[in-house]
Amino acid sequence: MPRLSQETINEIRQKADIVDIVKEYIPLTQKGKNYFGVCPFHQDHSPSMSVSRERQLFKCFSCGMAGNVFKFVSEYENISYLEAVVKVAEKVGMPITITKTYTPVQKYQEEYELMNLASLFYENNLNTEKGLPAKSYLKKRGLNDEMIKDFNIGLSFANNSLFEFFQKKNISPAKLVELGLLNQVDLNYQDVFRNRILFPIHNDEGRVVGFTGRVYENDSTPKYLNSRETKLFRKGNILFNYHRARDAVRLAKRVILVEGNMDAIRMYASGFKNTIALMGTSLTHDQIVLLKKLRVPVILMLDNDSAGELATYQVGLELEKEEFELEVVRLSGKKDPDEYIVTYGIEAMQENIDHPLSFLEFKLNFLKKNKNLQDTNDLANYVKEVLKTLEGKDAITIDITLNKLVQEYNLSYDVLKEEIKEKVPVRQKETSKPVVVKRKNAYVSSAEHILYYMMNDAKYIKMYQNRLGYFKEEVYRGIANEIIYYYEQNKNIELADFLSYVEISPLKEAMSAIIQGINDEEIAETKMEDYIFHIKMKLWEDKVKELKESQKKETDIHKKGLIGEDIVNLKKKIQELKEERSVKND
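RE: above sequence
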């Protein structure tokens, strides 16, 4: 994957004023030397995000999100860091050329390349003479050449052509079995997908991780066959078409969630490019995380059958717990969005999307199913079910729902309210407030501050090297070495620039946690002295304990005496360090 050089990234960052860039996305108000705005990365109700022109950094003091201008654009637009760099470069009028100056080895890089090669192989099959029947089938289903190309649709032949293709490239069959492309039967290998039209499945980064195969000729085999789960493909981690739909979702300011791959393809090709498909009818935590990244309301448009209706209710409840803004479209006359558009057209679909139900309306209608609300018992059960769904909801949602019940069934508001008080805990409306973080001990806090200071200024790197030079924890040593390496390569260090290097570091998560966890506005040399003191004291005190334990176990009198001398000398150094610090503080 092409990368920009670190020098070019730094040059772009230095030309971009973070305040001006962030103002393009959210309103900012100046307070003192910094600017403040409502954080777009969590449910914020009052300005908790600070943007510093002086340091060219942003920081939310509520959710902890922090970084430079590229990080903000990357997170806000839900694009990769490199894409954010290119976008910022365009904003500041700096033409750039992407080179292969630095290409980090990514986890599973070989596996991704093999999956991409398989996808290209299948695509090529569809465009051969032997692929004409399959292409004819797709055309009859209303998929034109552009749609076929956009979605990288391919074809597997009835033989073992994929196995033979990779054999010529000397690729281990075992590796292909591991990726779900081949099956091993005794000592022989067979293509998993045979005589099927193939729809590649991509992860959120746009990499091929699996396939859905569909029969296109009269065949007794199951209509659909999906890749089995592998190290790359976890059904619960994927939302089909997510990587293509992101830009359109941002523009439309909402995402349409459908059930099947073909529904997403039809919707996308018909102009509803903000459409994503579930990989089944359930919703996992990882899929919810992906949807949260989009930061837009969700329209649920699942199949028009009883299973689709139940799935809409269940998926909706999961998203409701996560405080998504939710609407529902229930199509009539056809089973799914694919069939609906083919039969009734794009304008009819647009009409449905323009007039969705609120999830509350859908939920109330769903709970009425199979109940005779003229019957006292059925009505009582229905009301109890509605009240149960209000558990954990805010007071406004509860009030709206109770009023609907009162109006429709002539019930007593006071009775319902009393029932709510007894059985359903009401969630108070939340106000934006800082996340309560568990207090770190002096050693951990000091270590992380030392590393944070080193990221900000070369003089703190030199203080670390001259006064400390060591952490007992591997992760802290690793981060210190990364910082020193960056400084030696660039002859300078500023946090706003170093953050770009963090994005390609194997210690990215650990470094990001430190950056987000420290709220210091002022960086001072005297503080650094204190942090170094705490680390040295801890290291030496731990060493004294180790020596004492060793001395207890030692049976040789002479060696026992030597260990005792080491303990005395170390205690002396500890005392001298305390006295030195006491003099400085005075």
